[in-house]
């Protein structure tokens, strides 16, 4: 039969490539081992119609098959992610690559309605869902590990303080946080630094819980949470932060996004953009189909620029970059801890979401940790001001960022 010949060729080719601790079990009882020892991962192909996911093992195909139950995959999560990446790296799907390049070249459409729906899909799963694997402040962005051995809660507070120290928040400063999540940064800015803050989000769940938390903390006079698109903010601020938000903006809209950030700043204001970037110099999708999977199941309409594109569009928008810090290793660790928390709270999470959503997030969190570790994606903090000025607010030395 045709499929038997195709499978035989696939098995032969993969065995030639390298040994991996993998066993594949077919619906007809045939078994294929790709190592001499005990396999760490077993893939069960339950029916003939599932076979094409296996013999075209892009990360998109393997992830889709796992999420949709087309392939049954058993093993430790980190081993599953490693094997999937090793399989995908040996396979090149030119059709998938072409589709991804087409989408990246022409860019997605980012109207207010489309962005609101995309944000709602990702963030409005339920607050209880995120509480199972985030820290107590529910900070859903890269943590900052000063020594590398801190727990997640400590590292997230360090991240908030690191950002607020970099932008030199002073008592009474007006601070805007674009994409404020559940309010962690604006609350910290008010409590520790004495700022007057506005946090904006497009997620209804985040909006409601952030407002509750502000009220419980007695910060209503200092912190305002709004359900608002960044394109509709009209005031000017002393400080502007955007943490884990510009991934939703779209490549075609980066310059206009940074122009809005520029216009929101006072003449002597300081801004911080903290966001995920592609490690591909041409800002292409992450390799081996990982980007397609995330677009389909996790972050609809999300696009990652290379750091060079970020700096270029910032300059074109009238923002000067003063300090650029790569926190890729920090995000690999952050996602690794999130994935561990997710695994440890499996029973509770399965009571909150269905099996499909559980599988999506399980493979997504662990896959992100792998992607950051493998230098496929990165995380940059960029400190900036309006260009063309000698800004007296920023000291000559970067020492102030670490003194306290």
Automatic annotation (TrEMBL):
**Keyword S-adenosyl-L-methionine tagged:** yes
BP term (GO), one: lipid biosynthetic process
Q: Which SUPFAM superfamilies match?
A: S-adenosyl-L-methionine-dependent methyltransferases
Q: Which InterPro entries does UniProt cross-reference here?
A: CFA/CMAS, CMAS, DUF7884, SAM-dependent_MTases_sf
Q: Report the active site residues.
A: 368
Asked whether the keyword Repeat is assigned, the reply is no
Q: Which residues form the DUF7884 domain?
A: 11-92
Q: Name one Pfam family in it.
A: DUF7884
Report keywords, A-Z.
Answer: Lipid metabolism, Methyltransferase, S-adenosyl-L-methionine, Transferase
Gene Ontology molecular function, alphabetical: methyltransferase activity
Q: Superkingdom, according to UniProt?
A: Bacteria
> What's this protein's family per the entry?
Belongs to the CFA/CMAS family.
The record's section on PANTHER family has:
CYCLOPROPANE-FATTY-ACYL-PHOSPHOLIPID SYNTHASE (PTHR43667)
Identification of the protein by name: Class I SAM-dependent methyltransferase
Organism lineage: Bacteria, Pseudomonadati, Pseudomonadota, Betaproteobacteria, Burkholderiales
């Amino acid at each position: 039969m045709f499929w038997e010949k195709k499978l035989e060729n696939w098995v032969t080719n993969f065995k030639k490539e390298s040994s991996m601790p993998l066993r594949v079990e077919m619906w007809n009882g045939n078994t294929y081992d790709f190592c001499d020892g005990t396999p760490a991962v077993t893939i069960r192909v339950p029916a003939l119609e599932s076979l094409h996911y296996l013999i075209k093992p892009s990360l998109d195909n393997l992830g889709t098959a796992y999420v949709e139950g087309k392939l049954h995959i058993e093993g430790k999560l980190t081993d599953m992610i490693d094997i999937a990446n090793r399989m995908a790296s040996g396979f090149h799907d030119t059709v998938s690559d072409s589709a991804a390049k087409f989408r990246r070249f022409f860019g997605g459409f980012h109207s207010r309605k489309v962005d609101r729906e995309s944000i709602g899909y990702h963030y409005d799963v339920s607050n209880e869902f995120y509480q199972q694997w985030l820290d107590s402040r529910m900070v859903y962005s890269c943590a900052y590990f000063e020594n590398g051995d801190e727990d997640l809660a400590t590292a997230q507070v360090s991240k908030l303080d690191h950002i607020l120290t970099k932008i030199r928040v002073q008592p009474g400063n007006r601070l805007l946080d674009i994409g404020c999540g559940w309010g962690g940064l604006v609350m910290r800015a008010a409590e520790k630094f004495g700022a007057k803050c506005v946090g904006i989000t497009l997620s209804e769940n985040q909006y409601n819980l952030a407002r509750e938390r502000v009220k419980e903390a007695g910060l209503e006079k200092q912190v305002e949470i709004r359900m608002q698109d960044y394109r509709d903010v009209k005031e000017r601020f002393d400080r502007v932060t955007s943490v884990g938000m510009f991934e939703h903006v779209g490549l075609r809209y980066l310059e206009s996004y940074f122009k809005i950030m520029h216009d929101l700043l006072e003449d002597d204001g300081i801004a911080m953009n903290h966001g995920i970037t592609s490690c591909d110099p041409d800002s292409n999708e992450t390799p081996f189909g990982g980007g397609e999977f995330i677009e389909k199941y996790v972050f609809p309409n999300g696009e990652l620029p290379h750091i060079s594109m970020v700096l270029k569009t910032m300059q074109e928008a009238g923002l000067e970059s003063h300090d650029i810090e790569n926190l890729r290793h920090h995000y690999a660790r952050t996602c690794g801890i999130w994935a561990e928390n997710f695994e440890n709270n499996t029973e509770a999470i399965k009571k909150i979401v269905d099996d499909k959503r559980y599988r999506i997030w399980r493979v997504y969190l662990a896959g992100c940790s792998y992607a950051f570790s493998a230098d496929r994606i990165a995380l940059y903090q960029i400190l900036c001001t309006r260009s063309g000025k000698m800004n007296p607010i920023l000291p000559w030395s970067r020492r102030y960022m670490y003194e306290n």
